[in-house]
């Protein structure tokens, strides 16, 4: 894997946070993580949720009658504790999604929250016990085949104490939607998800886009076009393989702008056709 420092991402952020009392997106050079936090007490979290339910922040028009207020209060009382959050980071390859995820996780950890990072065990490029960015940043993580197995692997008790869960390469997890919904809605976790929104053909990749309706914030990062240096929104596959999930780095993929995505696809398709035709001729002449 090549360090692609020249493709450091530039954030085109459309973040909007409605339920975010904490979420400083400040980078820190320190890489240490406090996995067990003493400051984040689940009891306190539950108590604050309880009290926040007592005073639902619902403003009613003046002409609404008592019955509406009563109904609103009943609705508030029947809701689950609204303490979790879901934040989604998408973009092409080499846009700095993992770097952004690790910085956010690191920041949460420095603020005393208990954190864990999950990645798919399909991606074995750097080993399974750590997560590494294209520019060399590295943190420990949990590699699992699917998200539903995380709680058991991590331990139920340890899971209960977790405040923040980071998910990298989220396009590889089919159960992303259910996991995020349960973790944020039911378990009160802050879930930060990083993944590709589109594959090399710019089709929706995995379940990443499915969780947008669950999200507090969505951030689309961009890279630098490897050909012209303009902002890159897409990932061009340089090789001829056609499967959607083909894990690789700068040897197989490059970030490109729209113009160079379109022209690049034409070049690659043409090359593929030429190669296929050549194989046919070879087969015919040898058969
Ligand atoms: Zn370009």
TrEMBL record:
Gene3D superfamilies: 3.30.60.20, P-loop containing nucleotide triphosphate hydrolases. Pfam families: TK. It catalyses: thymidine + ATP = dTMP + ADP + H(+). Its EC number is 2.7.1.21. Keywords: ATP-binding, DNA synthesis, Kinase, Metal-binding, Nucleotide-binding, Transferase, Zinc. Pathway: Pyrimidine metabolism; Purine metabolism. PROSITE patterns: TK_CELLULAR_TYPE (PS00603). This is Thymidine kinase. The gene is LOC111466371.
């Amino acid at each position: 894997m090549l360090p692609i420092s020249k493709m450091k991402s530039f954030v085109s952020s459309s973040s909007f946070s409605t339920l975010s009392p904490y979420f400083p997106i400040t980078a820190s050079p320190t890489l240490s993580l406090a996995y067990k936090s003493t400051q984040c007490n689940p009891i306190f979290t539950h108590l604050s949720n309880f009290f926040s339910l007592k005073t639902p922040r619902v403003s009613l028009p003046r002409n609404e009658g008592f019955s509406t207020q009563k109904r609103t209060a009943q609705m508030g009382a029947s809701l689950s504790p609204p303490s979790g959050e879901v934040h989604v980071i998408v973009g092409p390859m080499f846009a700095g999604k993992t770097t952004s995820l690790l910085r956010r996780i690191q920041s949460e950890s420095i603020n005393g929250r208990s954190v864990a990072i999950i990645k798919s065990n399909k991606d074995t490029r750097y080993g399974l016990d750590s997560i590494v960015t294209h520019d060399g940043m590295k943190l420990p993580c949990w590699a699992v085949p699917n998200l539903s197995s995380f709680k058991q692997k991590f331990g139920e008790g340890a899971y209960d104490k977790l405040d923040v869960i980071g998910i990298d390469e989220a396009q590889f997890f089919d159960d992303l939607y259910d996991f995020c919904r349960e973790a944020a809605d039911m378990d009160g976790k802050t879930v930060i998800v990083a993944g590709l929104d589109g594959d090399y053909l710019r089709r929706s990749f995995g379940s990443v886009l499915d969780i947008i309706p669950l999200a507090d914030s969505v951030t689309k990062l961009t890279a630098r076009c490897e050909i012209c240096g303009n902002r890159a929104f897409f990932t061009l596959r340089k090789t001829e393989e056609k499967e959607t999930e083909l894990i690789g780095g700068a040897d197989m993929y490059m970030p490109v702008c729209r113009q160079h995505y379109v022209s690049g696809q034409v070049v690659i398709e043409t090359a593929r056709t030429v190669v296929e035709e050549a194989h046919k001729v070879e087969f015919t002449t040898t058969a």
